[in-house]
């Protein structure tokens, strides 16, 4: 019964491929469809029956894989084990230009806390981070300043307090008054498992009390709402925050925003 159903599906799939357009395929837009037409491929069925070597030579390996997938030949394995990330970045453009170092410090502290939350979620730690700030390069009439600084910690950590302190120390050496900053952010580098942190002779890894504190903060923010509990360095009012008046509803991730008909 199963073999008959499989053959029946294949028998109906072939005429269906002849009736649809190339641009109905995922990843095929008008420009690629025109290049396929130039070598005589005008339908998904033609692509399925095309010569893989010719397709790869003329259009690349991605299009060749698409042709093979149409034949039922799997080209990409499912990723069962997600590899650890090599870096984590938290950055946003400001809702308005930031002109004071105090507000720039608030923004960097807020972004660092957000990056640290992602770090803990993946059970990772870092001893290196980069903080950066930049003005609006599309405003040549304004003074420009694009700067970054890498900071090294003695021992890898996932503690928001330690990471915020390191980020603000880096910002102190590069931040300047008199500029209209448009964007800032933090990049956590050289990530590795938090359970395998190498301690130094005088520098210790995160102690259990701080680990439990960070876990509690993450749970509260997840349950009640982001920034319910936050560091004072990140500010309260945050007038620099990104504007989102026209944000699209989150139909697939928020119960309160489900589409009503």
How are the SSEs ordered, and which strands pair?
Elements: H1 2-19, H2 30-38, H3 44-49, H4 52-59, H5 61-70, E1 88-98, H6 101-121, E2 124-135, E3 146-157, H7 160-174, E4 181-189, E5 192-193, H8 208-224
Antiparallel strand pairs: 1-4, 2-3, 2-4, 2-5
Helix pairs in contact: 4-5, 6-7
Can you describe what's shown?
Strands 1, 2, 3, 4 and 5 form a five-stranded antiparallel beta sheet that branches. It is built from eight helices and five strands, in the order H-H-H-H-H-E-H-E-E-H-E-E-H. By secondary structure, the protein is α+β, with helices and mostly antiparallel strands. The model is unreliable at 1-6 (pLDDT under 50). It is elongated. It folds into two domains: 2-70, Orthogonal Bundle (DNA polymerase, domain 1); 88-234, Dna Ligase, domain 1.
- The oligomeric state is single chain
The count of DSSP E runs of length 2 or more, i.e. the number of strands, is: 5
> The biggest beta sheet, please?
5 strands, antiparallel
Total number of helices: 8
Structural class: alpha+beta
Query: What would CATH call the class of the largest domain?
Result: Alpha Beta
CATH superfamily of the largest domain: DNA polymerase, Y-family, little finger domain
Unreliable spans are 1-6
In total, the number of domains comes to 2
Q: At CATH's second level, what is the architecture of the largest domain?
A: 2-Layer Sandwich
């Amino acid at each position: 019964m199963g073999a008959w159903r499989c053959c029946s599906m294949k028998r109906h799939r072939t005429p269906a491929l002849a009736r649809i357009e190339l641009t109905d395929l995922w990843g095929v837009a008008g420009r690629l469809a025109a290049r396929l037409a130039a070598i005589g491929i005008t339908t998904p069925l033609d692509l399925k029956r095309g010569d893989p070597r010719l397709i790869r030579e003329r259009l690349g390996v991605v299009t060749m894989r698409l042709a093979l997938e149409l034949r039922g030949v799997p080209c990409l394995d499912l990723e069962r084990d997600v590899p650890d990330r090599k870096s984590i970045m938290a950055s946003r453009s400001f809702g308005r230009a930031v002109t004071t170092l105090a507000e720039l410090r608030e923004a960097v502290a807020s972004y660092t806390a957000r990056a640290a939350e992602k770090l803990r979620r993946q059970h990772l730690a870092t001893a290196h981070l980069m903080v950066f700030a930049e003005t609006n390069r599309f405003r040549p009439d304004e003074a420009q300043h694009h700067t970054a600084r890498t900071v090294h910690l003695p021992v890898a950590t996932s503690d928001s307090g330690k990471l915020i302190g390191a980020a603000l120390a880096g910002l102190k050496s590069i931040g300047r008054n008199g500029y209209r900053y448009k964007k800032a952010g933090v990049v956590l580098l050289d990530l590795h498992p938090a359970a395998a942190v190498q301690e130094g002779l005088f520098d210790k890894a995160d102690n259990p009390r701080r680990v439990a504190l960070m876990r509690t903060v993450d749970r509260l923010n997840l349950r009640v709402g982001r920034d319910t509990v936050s560091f004072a360095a990140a500010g309260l009012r945050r007038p620099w925050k990104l504007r989102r008046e026209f944000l699209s509803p989150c139909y697939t991730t928020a119960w309160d925003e489900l589409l009503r008909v």
